[in-house]
Amino acid sequence: MAIHRVNTDDYPAQLQRKAERLREAFSAYTDLRPEVFPSPPEHYRLRAEFKVWQEGGRAHYAMYRQGEYKKPFIIDEFTVGSELINQLMPKVLNAVNESETLRKRLFSAEFLTTLSGDALITLIYHKKLDDEWEAEARALQAKLGFPILGRSRKQKIVLERDYVTEQLPIGDKSYRYKQVEGSFTQPNGDICRAMIGWAKDVCKDSAGDLLELYCGNGNFTIPLCEHFDKVLATEVSKVSVNSAQENIRANGVTNLDIVRLSSEEFTQAIDKVRPFRRLKEIDLDSYDFSTVLVDPPRAGLDKDTCAMVARFPRILYISCNPETQLENLQELSKTHRVERFALFDQFPYTDHTESGLLLVRK
C-alpha cells in the first residue's frame, strides 16, 4: 500500500527555484522580481479525483502515471489534499467496501471541499444507478453528513445538492461563493485568497469601470466590484454564469453585470462587428473602462482578444501558463509596461507556475 506524502522540508528551496525561473523568463520585459505567494506545504488541494482499483473484491483509491494506466499506485493517504478530504477518504472507502451495491463497477471517486468546511463526494460508475444504489448512497450521505452525488453514463443522481458553498475571508471582508461540481474552481484555497487579495491591492486606487473576461463564477469579479464604478464580466460556461448570478445576489453586489459570451464574441461586440442578443440589455457605450482583467485558459489570449485588451489603460493579467502569457506580452509590451509582477504557487512540488501582471499603458 502506498501513501502519497511530500517532503515539506524541500518546499522553500523549490519555491525559490520557481521564482528565479519566472524572473529570468520575464527579464526581457521587467526588472521586477515577482511578489511570491507560497502555498501551505500540506493539505492545500480542495479537490481531488481518484481512480478506484478493484481487486479481490475490494476497492482501493489509486493514481496512475501518465500513459501507465495498468500500473496503479494505491493511495491510503493524500497529504496534499485538504484535511477534510483526508478525513472523508477512509470513511467513504470503508462504506463502499461494506456494500456490494456501492462498490460494484465503481471506477472513480471525487472530493470537492472548501476552506469553510463544506464537502461534496461524487461516485462514478460503469453501470446504471438504480433505486437500490440510491438507498445505499442516502444511508452513506446521512452517515457522513455531506452530500453524495452519483454519476454514470447519461445519469446524474443528485441526492441533496451538486455544489459546495465557500466562504473566503479576504482582508476585513468575507465573500460567499457557490461552487458547482464539474465546473472550474481554484483548487488551492489559500492561493485563491492570495490571488484575490493581490488583485484587490492592484486595483485599490482604481477609477472608472472594469471589464473582466473569463470570469467563471465571479471569483475575482465580486471582490473587485468595490474598487470600480461599474463592472461588466463575461464567461462562456452556462453553469459558471448561473453560479456567478447567484454569487452576485449572495454578496449583495449591485454594480456588476455578467453576460454569457466568449472572449472572441465580446471582441466582436465591442468592435461592433455584429450584435448579440445576450447583450441587448447592456449599453456598452455607457461604460468608461479603465481596466481589463483577464484570466484565460492555458492557451492564453487569442490574437484578436489580445489586440482588444491592448486598448485599455490598465491590464490585469492572471495566468495559469506563463509561457502563453509571455507570448501575449510580446504584443502587449509594445503599448504597456509591467508595473506589478507576482507568482502564485498553486501546485507546490510541481513545475507548474501561475503568474500575475499589472500592465500600464506607456
Automatic annotation (TrEMBL):
InterPro entries in the record: MeTrfase_TrmA_AS, MeTrfase_TrmA_CS, SAM-dependent_MTases_sf, TrmA_MeTrfase, U5_MeTrfase_fam
Keywords linked to the UniProt accession: Methyltransferase, S-adenosyl-L-methionine, Transferase, tRNA processing
Superkingdom, taxonomy of origin: Bacteria
Residues binding S-adenosyl-L-methionine, per UniProt: Q186, Y214, N219, E235, D295
Function: Dual-specificity methyltransferase that catalyzes the formation of 5-methyluridine at position 54 (m5U54) in all tRNAs, and that of position 341 (m5U341) in tmRNA (transfer-mRNA).
Stated name of the protein: tRNA/tmRNA (uracil-C(5))-methyltransferase
Keyword field contains tRNA processing: yes
Xref: SUPFAM superfamilies: S-adenosyl-L-methionine-dependent methyltransferases
Pfam families membership: tRNA_U5-meth_tr
Catalytic activity: uridine(341) in tmRNA + S-adenosyl-L-methionine = 5-methyluridine(341) in tmRNA + S-adenosyl-L-homocysteine + H(+); uridine(54) in tRNA + S-adenosyl-L-methionine = 5-methyluridine(54) in tRNA + S-adenosyl-L-homocysteine + H(+)
Underlying gene: trmA
UniProt-listed Enzyme Commission number(s): 2.1.1.35
